[in-house]
Each structure stands twice: as C-alpha cells, then as structure tokens.
Amino acid sequence: MHRLLIALALRARQPRTATELIGIASSDGSGMFGRSVMSLDAQVARMSGLFDVPISGVDGDGYQLDLERVEVDALDFIDSVQAPGLQINEIARLLSMWRGDPRTVFEFLPRGEWAPLMRAFEQFLGHINRLPAAEVRQIRGELDEFADRLPDLTADVAWPAPAAPVRRHRLLIVENEAKVAEMLASILIDYDTRIALTLTEAMQVVIEQIDDIDGALIDLHLTERMDSAGLEVLAYIRDRRPELPRVLITASPPPGSQEQMRRVYGIMDILVKGADGYSANGVRDAVAQMFNEAPEAARQRATARLRSHAIQVQRRLNQQMSAARRGIRTGERSAYTELERCTDRIEQFDRDSDITLQQMELAAPAELDEIFLQYVRHWPLDNQGSGAAA
119, 185, 233, 327: which could form a disulfide with 332 (CB 3.0–4.6 Å)? Predict the structure, then answer.
C-alpha cells in the first residue's frame, strides 16, 4: 500500500494505469502482491480507507490521487524550483522540506519514480549556488542541516562561501540619565553601542578610544544644572576627528540659532526630546544618516566635517587678530601692518568658506572629498598665512 500511495502521490491528479501500479507494487519480486486487477482494486480500497486519502478510478483501468500538486511536498518542490529566481525565504522553506534521500527512505519504490524530483533537486542546487554570499550567511544553519540530512546527495556540492561578518558601527551615547541611555541603546540595537553617563566618562572614551568610534549621540546637558557640558565633548571631537559624524540630543534646546550650533560644533543634526521621550524613528533615522551612503547623507557628513575644520581655522585667525591688536596697544610699529593682513585674511577666509559650502551643495558625492582637501590645503591649521597667500 505504501508503494501504491507514493506512486499515486508522485503523479497527483494524473491517472496511472492498473498495469503501472501492479508493476510498481510488485517491483521487489516478492510475489506478495497479486498481479490481477481485482487484487489491485482491493488494495486501493483498503489504502483509501486506512490513510483517508481521496482516490478515484479512471475509466475502469487505473487510479489517480485527487490532491492538488501543492499538497504533495515532492510536487510542490518540483514546481517551486522552476521559478527563474528564488527569494531567500523561499529557498529556506524548500530546504526545510527535506528529511532524507527519498530513494533511500522509500527504497521499496523503483528509483525511476524519483527521476523528476532528482532533476528538480539539481536545479535547486543551482539556485543556491547563485545566491550572493551575504544571503548564504543568512541561511547557513539551514544549509548545514540540509547537508547533514542528505550526505550522499550533497557530498560533492561546494556551497557558496558565506560573507565575512560585517563589523557593526561603534556608536558612543553620552546621556546622563541611565534609563534614557538604555532606551537609546535598545532603539539602536543594530549598532555596537557604548554608554557614557558623565562628562568624565565621555571624555575618557573620546580621549582614549576616539579612533575606534564611528559616530556619537551626545546630550547637551549632563547634569541637572543645564550645564551644556556636552559641548565640551563635541568640541573635543571637532578638534581631533572632525570627520566623525555626531548628533546633539537634548530635552532643552539651546537658545539661539540651531544652524549656528551646527556650524560651530560640526554636528549633523539636533534631536529634541518630547514629552514622551525621543522618537524611536527619529533616533534611528538620525543615526542611519550618519552612515548612509546616499548622496544627501554623504553631503551632510562632508558639510559637517568642513564646518569643524573651518571653526578651528577661524579660531586661529581670531587669535592672530587679537595678537595684532595687543601689539598696537604696546606700541609695536609692525602691528598695524599685521592687523591689516589679519583683516584681509579673515575676509578671504569667509569668502572661501562660503564658496566651498556652495560647491559642496552642488557637487557629486565622489567630488566631496577632493573639495574638502582643496579647502584644507588652502586653509591648513598649522600655517594660516600660507593658506591665504596661495
């Protein structure tokens, strides 16, 4: 009966003649199954009742199993692999259907019955071998189980190498309220987060590990006194790693222009906490923008980097201007000439900075780094005079 049932299942909704079914049922030569149609009819009747399967006679000379192809795993598999490109979730489903080599599990059935399924199996292996390495990594466990269940069928298969694990972006969260910091870390679970609850902790991290940080969320106030201590962390990052993307977070926005805050500290965004806390989507979007390779995100990072460099240059120029004014007060004759030079440099610096920002607004992403480097060559931090004269 098992032989008959499987033979009918492998041709669901397709009739099989009595001669075929008798031959399959008697294929081991045991003689235990009679070769008469009457004997076949009796076995089919018993089988239908025992297994509760819908079987119908066909013109008095055979039978068919009245199931849709999708209801028979082997036929569902055969039909599914015909698709030109299988999605990763469909491949995972088809992998899970296999419990062993059916030719071994049902060894009493003639091997020829499995020929269509074995051809589909080869097609399935082709789908797997065309998967991108990153997707292979997603179903590595299912592939290993599949190979364990089918050692003979997969012995010579060279599975695609999985993609190397991608290092998660390391994100510093500076937030004095532990519950808020933990909430932010849970929102940003896809990142490797490091929490600093005080100014001391934050400065220790950026001083000792600044090269290992990929981005930062920094709270403006790190005590209950509205201290704006987060600006110290931002200033340190701006002066040591101006290219590091960073976002200011605060429940109390600072007075004045947020655009001025962005310019002075080179921050990409300012997230304001509402009555219900920070918006989870807003936090995720702001951090994703730090590492996004889309043109506008790259432009935003490049602009923040330029502003970080420019503010340091401006500070040096202002120091030179102050020194010239002190020289005038002390009677240095050359101080007037130096003051005039400083004034010209500052005016030139302002013009160049505005022009460079406009260039970044219009440039293609691939051009942003070169625009920044040209600006740095013209206005280096070590010698402002040579930059202005260039």
Answer: 327
